[in-house]
Amino acid sequence: MTGDDLELGIHPSVDIVFPPSLLREELTDLAADVRILSDGSALAGLDGVVTFSFEEAFLSADLEWIHCILAGVDAFPFEALKRRGITLSNSSGVHGDAIGDTVLGYMLQFARRLHIYRDNEPTREWYYPDWDETFTLPGETVCVVGLGTLGQGVTARADAVGMNVRGVRRTPTPVPSVDAVFTPDSLTAAISDARFVALTVPLTSQTEGLIGSDELDAMREDAYLLNVARGGVVDQDALVAALTDGRIAGAALDVFETEPLPDDSPLWDLENVIVTPHAAGATDEYAERVAAIVAENVRRIRRGESLANHVV
């Protein structure tokens, strides 16, 4: 893939996040052949594809490069891509502020009971909270599990509103806006006295099922779990049990074991749960940010350099 006559396709699956035409417009100055695909069968002749989701057709095409518009690429078969000589890059780094805003919004909703008031609107219920039901964020503690771009988007906002901020990462080196950094072997200690536990880690073999019954039992009864990572990071059955039994106060969940969240999931009916549709990273600048990474990688291809956000 020399980049001199690079042909790049925009897969229709990106429409889940933004119109394919918007991304193409952002790539107008790329000096490459960029076209919107109708389906996977239109892959012939392409050097690379920008996509939301993985298709088996990618492996049988002559692609050399796939760029995923998501940060999480656990749905992509790394070994199969390696065997086919296909390079995979992702959009890590574009979601920090959007995720941070969303998590701050979750915490404000729980602290100020905004989700309850909203739920009461359809029945015109005029409900005033008990004297000890609401609280403010300054002075409360949030533990952010995962201190990459997403986690630091959360920690910066939590610190700005006066919260005590701690974090969990593999190396205990200092991180801006974080008062104390713990390693994963001290996870239970890190979350044990936090009012909020925010998950921002990628889904890997090390993080799958990271939060289970033991970890939920270690949390305070008035604590809230906030998951903007991946559904598989949490044992969902254990979480439902903890929420139902009142062992934790609530949860805000943007990601789930199965997506969309099935109609029969008990999570829909729990008053102390906020469900969002894997949209914590959504922003009107999404296409622009993805385009910046794609354009940079096209420049790197032309210079024979390794790609930005190279995964495999």
UniProtKB/TrEMBL annotation:
Domain D-isomer specific 2-hydroxyacid dehydrogenase NAD-binding: 104-280
GO molecular function: NAD binding; oxidoreductase activity, acting on the CH-OH group of donors, NAD or NADP as acceptor
Keywords assigned: NAD, Oxidoreductase
Keyword RNA-binding attributed: no
InterPro entries attached to this UniProt entry: D-isomer_2_OHA_DH_cat_dom, D-isomer_DH_CS, D-isomer_DH_NAD-bd, Dhydh_Halo, NAD(P)-bd_dom_sf
Transmembrane segments: none
Domain D-isomer specific 2-hydroxyacid dehydrogenase catalytic: 44-311
Highest taxon listed in the record's lineage: Archaea
One Pfam family of this chain: 2-Hacid_dh
Similarity field: Belongs to the D-isomer specific 2-hydroxyacid dehydrogenase family.
Record protein name field: D-2-hydroxyacid dehydrogenase (NADP+)
UniProt organism field: Halobellus clavatus
